[in-house]
Amino acid sequence: MKKMVKILGFLTLAALIGFSMGACSSDSESSGAAVSVDDDLVFTDDVNKVVITITRTDPRAILTPRNNDYYVITLDGNPVSTGTIMVNGNTLDFNPFSSQESFSGTMLNSGKQLKIDSILYEGGEISNIDAAFDNAALGPDFTITGDKFDETFKSIRNTPGTYTITLTSNLTDYAGVSLNNAGVKITVKGDRGERKIIWKHSAQVGNLFTVIAGRLTLEDIILESDSGNTREGTSLEAAGGTIEMKNGVILSNSVGAGVNVGNNGAFIMSGGIIQNCKNGVTTTGARGSSITISGGFIRSNTEQNIALWNMSENTTLNIT
Which of these, 74, 100, 97, 73, lies nearest to 84 by C-alpha position? Predict the structure, then answer.
């Protein structure tokens, strides 16, 4: 028989309500620039509108490119190449994840300058790249139309870094996407409050966003299950990673749960609305899961607004 904790009714979280619950049952290296252990190595070519971001695959206080570090190259804010690098002195060999041709660059001026003769990509060619070290950016940001969302998300989800994707048009009939890299933090938001992602999965059970590892942050975006969805699924599944919901998010109409938290997953809600789903926020027999709610509304869901079933070791719920 299931053990269940239910919080019913309309949750308004502007007031301070304290609630906490736990229940049991050797690489080559080039000369480079010194940056902090939390930073990527970023080069910017303002003339060509190119940004090259190189991210470590191991911790080090001086971030000098090493074999198998990840890279992302954007042109005018759009990704044109992602992959890994190999280092030979001051020469960097870029090896794309896709079938795109490999290319090389040269680091100059004690690692403060990166030159690449040519990059061939699906949309054309970029020539004579002369990029200066610019550590102000933590990772490239993307401002895209809805039809570019899936390819943009998938182009960065395997490359550690901090990214923001801003949608400038709605995305409809979207089948969903997953994140499974502990070094990746992605924020998805709309350019204005009514921007929508409409999730359609009537052919099979699935999730809109599944975070197995890493962190997904949502703000100023409407997440809506298509009216044709007939099989249960979860809009947001924190399956080991972290999902954060901020102001301006409206999550609605999920045939299953709006949010489900699995083993070692975390859901953080500081704003937004979860409504008109079968269940609002759930966790089922999850070990080490965490739900933290400090703002927003969870309301008008068919069965439960918050439901904790078969709570396991180190599962916590905090509402403030």
Answer: 97
